[in-house]
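User: These chains co-purify. Model them together.
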Amino acid sequence: MRFELKPPPHALPTTSVPKVMRHVIYALAPAAFAHVWFFGWGICINALIATAAALGAEALMLRVRSRPVKPALLDGTATVTAVLLAFAIPPLAPWWVPVIGAVSAIVLAKHLYGGLGSNLFNPAMVGYAVLLISFPVEMTYWLPPRGAELGHSPVGAWDSLRFAVTGSLPQALAVDAVTQATPLDLVREGLTSMQTLAEVQAGPLFGGMGGRGWDWVNSLIAVGGLYLLFRGIIRWHIPVSMLAAIVVLAAVFHTIDASRFASASFHLFSGASLLGAFFIATDPVSAATTNRGRLIYGAGIGILVYAIRTWGGYPDGVAFAVLLMNATVPLLDRYTRPRIYGRPR
Amino acid sequence: MSTGTPIARGLLPERLIIPMDQQAGPAAVPVVEVGQRVRKGEMIGRPGGLRSAGVHASASGTIGAIREGPVPTVNGLTTSLCVHLQTDGRDEQAPSEGWPRERDARIDAICNAGIVGLGGAVFSTAEKLRDDAECDLLILNGAECEPYISCDDMLMREHPLEVVRGALAMMDLTGAESTVFAVERDKPDALRAVREAAAQLGDTRIEFARVPTVYPAGGERQLVELLTGREVPSGSYPPAAGCICQNVGTAFALDRFMRRGEPLTSRIVTVTGNGVAHPANVEVPIGTPIGDLIHFCGGYRGDVTRLILGGNMMGYALPGDDLPITKAGNCIVAAHADEIRESTGEWPCIRCGDCADVCPPRLLPQQLLRAATVRDFDQLDSLGLNDCIECGCCDIACPSQIALTERFRQAKQAWAVVSQRAAMADLATRRHRRKLARLAAQTEDIHRQQDDLIAAIGSEDSRAMIEAAVARASRRRGESDTAH
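Assistant: Joint model of the two components:
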């Protein structure tokens, strides 16, 4: 009898890229439901538009680079990028906002650097940064959470969709009237106009831990993150060091002056701290790969997030912090190699 | 799936193909002739040098041929001289030579008896026992080296007394201060059996350790670290960390030789995989063609796509089943397409680092891959390419399903070629430099002689030399005048 000759190992692989990406999507689902509950269907509309644009851009770029299209479209990486981007875009957004964001992410950040696995910068965060810098006004169309609308009816699914397509709301709803600043925005504006933190946080958008609604969304993001941890999709080093850096800095400054510096729990549960820690900074391609490197990388992001939020020009800083630390990854990978078994220290 | 039934015995094929190259050292040298009758246990190949071992007839019969043939060795499929033996089914035993009294004679006897490491590396047992200089710890390896393999488990369950007696003999031969007997956690029956055997023998020197069932804990470098916290230095063997590792199968073979004078003529082989009708552990005479072994286990079942020698992590695929089982052959897997890896589409590396998490020598396979792709040998060196034990863990963990281990094997080969070339170039350069230096020295010598001559002109000596030369010349002229 004759048999095929293949090199070892012969055992079946235990995982695959599409499987990993599927689990990331599962992990985001609970937070997406909370997002829909508090802020309406906008996130779903954005996610769908961004995914379509991302897949289109992916297919186009693969054709241009004469690479096989189908396997790359099915690997789920472009979809994850689009969904993460949708979490960063305000729920009320004209259609071209997610499109430009997704296309920038896939074309600029991913394929111009050599496609999957070769990109230096996190694609979703590049897409977000492009949007934030190019369309600062559109990127503020956040809605108040359910139950905190100020004198107007909530924006329904139909209204969101109509706004996405036409860029306008029905007569009864004016964009400026229905949109609301996020808690991080309010804290920032309040502090610059010499209000104390206690005065700002007495407003209706604030809840126990962070902003109303946001505390739920972010708690469920943490749940999703823990799911990824238990599944072995991500490792603890980056989330723990990033969140620890934020918490330690926030606690120290809050203790020094509670009227000017928000508490650690506020920093954790508002903005994108948890999304960043579990889903953005852990993007394997653009993160450090050694365990020591991951600790430094995560801590660096945490420090930068806190610094940008507190002293920088933007209310939240996760995207810029991640992009800045992305740039340090080649160096971290090189200088944090573990000692090899049987070699001198 | 192969531990449900006892070790199957009684396999005696009509023809045995016994290779001379079955051990890590040099091949044995045949000492029989075609047509000669041999009894079971008779030496047919004497040790071919240091670290070699004797080879014996695994059954009684007649030597049919002695010729080169393909042999699966630890280094892959190679060609070796093989003694073909037509068995006669009479199972006549050669008389035993007895167990010597002196330590050195005992170790030589072990070498002649063809006893080698049966864990799979077939390193000379005699050499390991002889070289005991700084070893204070003897490790009995009862941790199976691969997930599919269960031959050591079955051996400990069925022959605990022999295994423990063999271990005690090893202790006495090496003079190791202590002995640790390591058994995996998922083999409680085997552990109980060897413990009871030790108690029965009244031995209290052997310490038993349960080790986690994590592949490749049975690899000796990993086992040394697990049990002692010591590391075997890069590029050396366990004795450099003060340990000797011996497989339980080897201890069993040693005891058989001591008690009954029987040299190593058989071993336990795990036959498994969905492609074999009755998976089992079988006592196999060395040299049995794999096809006969499969037939003994009920034959093939279904569509067997790959025949693997060794486990499914480190074992290699065989082209056919007419190859013999050697002393290194611990397992045969007859696999269907659905239980083995097909090289399907690979995704690009997504740098997740899962490979580094599972790497026993703590390498960074993902960084190694990048360096291997561009053949950056300096980088491969500092990333520890040659510390890779080729266990295959990274391949299994990789979500991009990249054939990492195979790439590293290729890079190692390429590196070996490149460094050999570099060494040759270096040698040529040095030779050339020496030649230049030699020529320069010669030239300098000539110059110095000339300088000496020039310096000598005008001195007392030179005047005398000139006068002598003139005298010589005139004398010669005088002589030639008279000749005319």
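The first helix of chain B runs from residue 103 to 112.
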